[in-house]
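My current task is to audit a protein record that another person submitted. Alongside the sequence sits a line of tokens, each denoting a local backbone shape. Please read both lines and tell me whether the tokens look consistent with the sequence. Do not assume that whoever made the record got everything right. Thanks in advance; the entry in question is below.
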Amino acid sequence: MYIVLEYYLLENLIINFLILYSTKTITKNKTPIKNIIIGTLFGTVYSLVFFYPSLLFLTRPMMKFILSLIIVKISFKSKTLKSFYYEFLGFYIISFIFAGVIIGMSWNFKLPSSLLQRGYLLDMFNIKNVIIGIIIAIFMVKIVFNYTHRKNMKKEYIYDVEIYFKDKFTKVTALVDTGNSLVDPFSRTPVFVVELEKIDEFIPTKIKDIVVSLSKNSIISFQDILDDLNKEFPLIPIPFKSIGNEGGIILGFKPDYIIIKSLKEEILKKDIIIGIYNGKLSDEMEYDGLLHYETIF
């Protein structure tokens, strides 16, 4: 049995590059591609130690772990320990997924008894298995990391909120939106945007009709409406700008208070306005309210 060195190096080069590039993509790291190439070359050179008996001590688990740390540091230039940990964990998970998929494919395409044949262990890492395995592994990695990212986002930025108004209350699942800077222009009170159907029991029918009309850009007389409803249900018109809408208005009202619940604490807020939104804020993340970031931070 012999190994063509050029093919061996090429396979290692491809595998190392795609593992590091996948780690960059999944962890959303903005490291330059040249850093990925440097890390790839370092890993490829390391693969040559198997041909030098005097360097085989570098294949011990502890040495492999240390060299993996070096590769990740070279490739991603992490500025914080937290980001380094995330990238290192991603690197290892992706590496195991790639190896597992490639070995699994080889197991399925060959009889189990052939695994015992001389030279088959290296043969199962041929370029065909590597390319197909990497394509499958990339899809698997994206699914795993997207799911994890969503779970982490829910844990850090999604809260249960109770809204209390005139002896009634309702529960809302809210996202703390760092892009939500909506405030009442006069009092500078932050606005908590909530879907109309979640606060339906608070809102008189006449106001629901107004909110629907606004969402359809219907022309209505605000002054007449505000004067008519001021005693029954004081409304606060809040101007806003968004993509494709330079002069929108959302109607709001002041609740008695809200309670923001997290795993660590409960925050009671009175100085807040509920903005009434006619529509769905999100289907994927399963939230129906957008909290102003200053409400939490």
Observations:
- The radius of gyration is 29 Å.
- The helical segments are 5-26, 33-46, 61-76, 81-109, 120-123, 127-157, 205-215, 222-229.
- The CA atoms of residues 109 and 124 lie 10 Å apart.
